[in-house]
């Protein structure tokens, strides 16, 4: 009788990913071997966190039950309180094979590890070359979550998983940054926002780590007399300030935006001028004090963060139909930005003209899950949607024209990011194998003809 394998995962998809620039990663990431004492400390700390979560959930349930007022007719209120997991439609996922996520069972004592017969042949893959990009891939498989570090070499057409990190909760957003808090040297770090309100920050030059370098936020605990600070609900988006490198911004379901001072590990400024979830945000490319936000109430707001006392009452606004899923600044024409909404529409606007939209187009039939400008071709725009399609647009200040579209057959496309060194190369995350894919839009004849790209460049 044949031995049965492990059951297939009913939920298996990539909700977030991020490129790491070439040449910043260590060629051989440091490998951590924990002592028994260190492992016991981590297990003890994890158990305490679980106890605190359980105790506080019980307190919150009791508090809520004491004063609950049920109104079945209040559809707007029910919509505002949706769990972000609902947006991923977990119940609709098919069973799929060919995906692996590290589990705690894989963490063994160094003395118990058996040498791999293919160790010599795999040694070259262990080395990260200066010509390699890393791609940080958030992976959800049933109730397990991880961030996989993939190596991508464009010249060699190589793509493989190098190592991974276990995550405490489902990842919703990933942001790379080279600021290493507490160090005077550039780092190779990433921040991850999850269904959990705590932001975790990881050192990508350390392999096999089972805990983050540091965390931003605390749930607090009545039992252990810990104060809550930071977000109170899921973190939906992150943006690193490349001009003030110690500043990281986060937007949350709790209707707040927090500017974190990573050197202090504390909120620097908290912006509360929102009526709904803060779903997307981005710092301006050159104006360090300016941050753009998009909310599920349809408002896009631009804040000047220099005056912390006045920031909540001094935003510039734009209003569009539907929920704002994505906002993105143009990288070279930096007065302009794009807005993507949950009904599949794209809107183009100028920060100098509040409350005015330059053009709108019904780009997709479902919500926008990714948008990218092209720094080498200022009039080229790409968009993805949960319908599963990539589209390329040729746009100017008055209209956008459809150029090309590509179907990946990966189910719902959840995210799209752009290679820093080659803006024509894009990475996508979906829900069906291979779940993460790389595609160069120069492969399209229509794209080459429209934008005057030589065939030899494809």
What does this structure look like?
The longest helix is centred in the first third of the chain and has 31 residues, at 36-66. This protein has a four-stranded antiparallel β-sheet, with no helix packed on it. Mean pLDDT is 85; it is low at 61-80 and 90-115. The chain is globular, with a radius of gyration of 22 Å. It has four helices and 29 strands. With 458 residues, it is mostly beta strands. WD repeats lie at residues 228-270, 361-403. Residues 44-90 are annotated as: Disordered.
Report a brief summary of the structure:
It comes from Drosophila pseudoobscura pseudoobscura (Fruit fly). With 458 residues, the protein is mainly β.
The neighbouring-strand order within the major sheet is 1-3-4-5
Helix content: 10-25%
Radius of gyration: 22 Å
Major β-sheet, in short?
4 strands, antiparallel
pLDDT average, as an integer?
85
Cα shape: globular
Distance from first to last alpha carbon = 52 Å
Q: Count the helices. How many?
A: 4
Pfam families: WD40 (PF00400)
Keywords: Phosphoprotein, Repeat, WD repeat
Biased composition (Acidic residues): 49-62, 69-78
Protein name: Periodic tryptophan protein 1 homolog
Topology of this protein?
Elements: E1 12-20, E2 30-31, H1 36-66, H2 75-80, H3 119-126, E3 133-141, E4 144-153, E5 158-166, E6 171-179, E7 186-194, E8 199-203, E9 206-207, E10 214-216, E11 235-240, E12 247-252, E13 257-261, E14 266-271, E15 278-283, E16 290-295, E17 299-304, E18 316-319, E19 324-329, E20 336-341, E21 345-350, E22 357-362, E23 368-373, E24 380-385, E25 389-395, E26 400-407, E27 415-418, E28 425-429, E29 436-440, H4 445-451
Parallel strand pairs: 2-9
Antiparallel strand pairs: 1-3, 3-4, 4-5, 6-7, 7-8, 8-10, 11-12, 12-13, 13-14, 15-16, 16-17, 17-18, 19-20, 20-21, 21-22, 23-24, 24-25, 25-26, 27-28, 28-29
WD repeats: 228-270, 361-403
GO cellular component, one term: nucleus
Biased composition (Acidic residues): 49-62, 69-78
